[in-house]
Amino acid sequence: MMANRPLERRAIGTRDTVRPEPRGRGSRPALRRDASVGGPIPEAPAPSKSSGRGLDAFTFFIANLQTGFGPFLAVYFTQQKWTQSDIGLALTVGGLVSLLGQVPGGAFVDASRSKRFAAAFSAIFVGASAVMLAAFPSYLVVLLAMAIHSAASCVLTPAIAAIGIGMVGHARAGTRLGRNASFSAIGNALGAASMGAIGYYLTNDAVFYFAGALVVPALFALSFIPARAVTEVSQPEAGAEDTEGSGSVKALLTNRALLCFAACMVLFFLANAAMMPLVGSVLTLRASETATALVAACIMVPQAVLALTAPLAGRLAQSWGRKPLLLIGFAALPIRGLLFAYVDNPYWLVAIQVFDGVSASVLGVMVPLIVSDVTRKTGRFNLALGAVGTAMGLGAALSTSLGGYMADSLGSHTAFLGLAIVGALGTVLVALVMPETRRPAA
Fold first, then answer.
1. What is the pLDDT of residue 376?
2. How does pLDDT run across 317-331, given as a tens digit for each residue?
3. pLDDT-based confidence at 9, cuts 50/70/90?
């Protein structure tokens, strides 16, 4: 009778459940569990096709929804006769909430028993903020909507990553995250095209009503992911130290690999964020009549590269390891900066954006994957992902100021060279300091 006891068991003091893999008749069950630090990763059961397609569709529609909060915001605010200072304040409020909310948002996802609920909860608020912008365009309501959107997005991003990894397990996480990045890029591209057409043929208000309506198909897609298909990847394992409260912060501050990765990401975004605005300024000076179309092409080219190569990046992360692929993504940045500094032809400037697509493809997979690697058994995957997101936001915020100062004082040529040097420093840091975080598959 003891041999026939249920295989499902719960660790004392944790919420983790060790579940049996699906088995055929007469076969022995295989327990799904996380390996110890440094040990091999056991193969997790593959999710059902409906679950995988549900996450694909959810990621696609969320990317569509989020596209409305990009360049369309400035167009909408201008149409409402807002001054540039008012527009800047509204965008600043959203940026500050996004920066400060990364860590609390990750902590909220860690504390949530259901990552699907956290994703649905935040998606609803993102959609509601879009409707608020269109329905009540008063200044205070817009500031509130921007704050709600940014706070909800801080929950939505780590929730999607946690669902993806929880569906397939750590051994297949790279491939799943690559699919997430690919469908997100496709959603961004089609969302921009759809909303541009809606704004042109209808009104700019309709753009945000359309964005809010996208929550409905997103939630429908999420319903195809059953709760049993998502393991609690962010929960601590049996025997792991309690990381609640101040202990969780201490765990992050003493995690060498995580700190190295965060430092690398600060340097990357310090070099990267200012490049596209500088390219837009250069294109305006060199090809004023076609500048708008060329800038749009500069945005679309990386998205196309990302959509095509992100699944490959996910697979290579499993076979090559994290560090070689991370080096490729980082090395593409200084190459891009050097080419921007010495190329004059506007059409070649657009072509150079292929390197931005390479970096975006690699980092879109590597950021959640490496954070997942270095925080296993701590129960703080999403909190750490928020901390890395904060580091990225700080680098991006400083980058625009640094790039603008160098361009005004020394010229765009020197500005691109300076940003390329910062990117090269980040690449060197990855090569010399960043450890390999992949664990061998069982």
1. 78
2. 888 989 999 999 999
3. very low
| DSSP summary character for residue 31 | B
| Contacting residues for 381 by C-beta, under 8 A, at least 6 apart | 106, 110, 158, 162, 165, 233, 234, 371, 372, 375
Q: Cα 410 to chain center, whole Å?
A: 33
CB-based contacts of 128-134 (< 8 A; 24+ apart in sequence): 128/212, 130/65, 130/68, 130/69, 130/208, 130/209, 130/211, 130/212, 131/208, 131/209, 131/212, 133/73, 133/76, 133/208, 134/205, 134/206, 134/207, 134/208, 134/209, 134/212
Task: Give yes or no for a contact between 397 and 99, defined as CB atoms under 8 angstroms apart.
Answer: yes
Q: For residue 208, which of 95, 127, 119 has the smallest C-alpha distance? A: 127
For residue 265, give both structure tokens.
């990401």
The DSSP code sequence of 169-228 is: -GGGHHHHHHHHHHHHHHHHHHHHHHHHHHHHHS-HHHHHHHHHHTHHHHHHHHTTS-GG
Give residue 287's pLDDT band: very low, low, confident or very high (50, 70, 90). Answer: confident
| Residue-wise pLDDT tens digits, 59-98 | 999 999 998 787 778 778 877 788 777 887 888 888 889 9
How long is the chain? 442
User: What CA–CA distance (Å, rounded) separates 343 from 376?
Assistant: 45
DSSP code of 439? -
- Say which residue the tokens 């003493």 belong to: 254
E strands in 341-429: none
Which of 101, 139, 2 lies closest to 389 in space, CA to CA?
101
